[in-house]
Design a protein that fits this description.
The complex is a heterodimer of chains A (244) and B (217). Chain A is an alpha+beta fold and 244 residues long. Chain A is 20% helix and 26% strand. Chain A is globular and about 55 Å long. Chain B starts with 16 loop residues before the first strand and ends with a strand. The chains are: A alpha+beta (244), B alpha+beta (217). The structure holds zinc ion.
Chain lengths: 244, 217
């Protein structure tokens, strides 16, 4: 089923300014669409299983199972339990970076100049690390649960020597990625600058998040690119067959 | 930053710990500031899955993403500083006769084996089982939630400019080693990989040697 999003009403919509964040439980079969409202956006994304958050996005398993170092259309985001957590079912960008993580408060202070609430009020510059930790704790987890995220809308490629190259302002305004949730998740999104983005001052691109009704992916869906993705999908289907 | 604590030609006889870790087995210890850990790939092309934690704040674990973004390179070799999620230095690679170590492949598990190789592989021994048994038997008591993506010493996982990723034959060989100096109090958690499904070790996991020099503080 291919869904023309414009003809559907989202269940939920939220604008996230630069430095902002989001976390929400999103059910199996719902679709989270993230839209960049300007060029060169970056959105760090983490997924944890809602009813058992010790299961979470595992970037190494995701990458090695699908022989890729980038996330793109019909890649499956996999958990450390060998299950499909989400599928990229809509993507106008073609490359999302799973390698580079987020900046800490110290990184942000060093790069863009020190800011704090006392002096700058809500114009203080937020870090991806702090944003993620706040949302983890808010969801009953802690800093130890932090793992590498996927940086939506950012492209980082590696040369033969392993050197990482950041492509500046890779995603144009209006870029979108749609992630179909294959399990009930806690999704965390941080609208904070990519650690390798050379732009100064602090890049400021708002995001729009929308959640739509959709259906979980059928493991037989021919758009799944690999047997590995199909098996991860089967593992999720079996888990839900036992739960429900 | 602490200075190098030992002479380059330090004597193996003077080491505080020397042990052979067969494939499929794990090792967990705490290094004090300045302690040096050497891992020797005794027969070549082995993978040693290793995680690090700040011993004083075990929630602050090794971060693959933080480490590679900070050095601008996905591979580890001499000079690389391994960082926690919060940006604290854990260990520095002070010597490396292999030349490249993987940061992206993570550990094998029963569950990821079902995805990569087939549902019937769920019963095979794997690195996460080793990690889980180690953390159940050692202080401080870590939990499965602490098992973040790890380093694979001696493993070769090249990434192509087009974003493709492959598991290539190792560039390690018999006797090659990597040496890590602790930059704070650091918990080390290791699994000598028992993977029998991956051609990059010729389906033949082999032992490694672990050598530790204590700084004596
Ligand atoms: Zn393994």
């Amino acid at each position: 089923m291919s869904m023309a999003l414009s003809s559907f009403t989202p269940l939920y919509t939220l604008s996230i300014p630069a430095g902002g964040r989001f976390s929400m439980r999103i059910g199996r079969g719902k679709r989270l669409v993230v839209r960049a409202e300007g060029p060169g956006a970056n959105a760090a994304l983490w997924l944890y299983r809602a009813d058992h958050p010790a299961e979470r996005l595992n970037v190494p398993d995701t990458l090695k199972a699908q022989h890729t170092a980038k996330i793109s259309l019909f890649d499956v985001l996999m958990s450390d339990e060998g299950r499909a957590m989400a599928t990229v079912v809509h993507d106008t960008v073609g490359w999302h970076d799973p390698l580079s993580g987020v900046q800490t408060r110290a990184d942000v202070d060093k790069r863009y100049g020190e800011t704090n609430f006392q002096r700058h009020r809500n114009a203080m510059l937020r870090s991806g690390y702090e944003n993620a930790v706040k949302e983890l704790v808010r969801n009953g987890l802690d800093a130890g649960d932090l793992v590498p995220p996927v940086n939506l809308f950012s492209k980082v490629w590696c040369d033969e020597s392993g050197r990482m190259h950041f492509v500046s302002e890779f995603a144009p305004k209006g870029s979108e990625i749609g992630l179909r949730m294959e399990m009930d998740v806690i999704a965390i999104v941080s609208n904070t600058p990519h650690p390798l983005d050379p732009r100064r001052p602090y890049p400021s691109v708002p995001l729009t998040l929308s959640v739509y009704q959709d259906e979980p992916t059928d493991p037989r869906d021919p758009r799944l690119k690999t047997d590995e993705a199909r098996r991860a999908m089967e593992n999720t289907v079996w888990q839900y067959a036992l739960l429900r | 930053m602490p200075s190098l604590a030992f002479d380059r030609d330090r004597d193996l006889v003077a080491a505080d710990t020397r042990l052979v870790l067969p494939s499929g087995e794990g090792f967990m210890c705490t290094l004090q500031l300045g302690d040096v850990l050497r891992i020797v790939d005794l027969e070549g092309n082995q993978a040693v899955d290793t995680l690090f934690f700040d011993a004083d704040r075990p929630y602050d674990h090794y971060s693959a993403a933080k480490t590679i973004a900070a050095q601008g390179n996905i591979y580890l070799t001499t000079g690389a500083v391994l960082l926690t999620e919060s940006g604290r230095p854990l260990v520095r690679i002070v010597e490396d006769t292999c030349g490249r170590h993987d940061t992206l492949g993570g550990a094998c598990s029963a569950q990821s084996n079902t995805v990569r190789y087939g549902h019937d592989k769920v019963h095979m021994h794997n690195c996460r089982d080793t990690f889980m048994l180690q953390i159940a038997m050692h202080e401080p008591r870590l939990a499965k939630r602490d098992l973040a993506p790890n380093v694979n010493f001696f493993m070769n996982v090249p990434v192509r400019p087009d974003g493709g990723l492959e598991f290539a034959d190792g560039i390690s060989g018999p006797g090659r080693y990597v040496e890590l100096e602790a930059m704070s109090r650091v918990i080390v958690l290791m699994s000598n990989c028992p993977q029998l499904n991956n051609p990059c070790n010729a389906y033949n996991p082999t032992p490694v040697e672990i050598v530790i020099w204590r700084r004596g503080v």
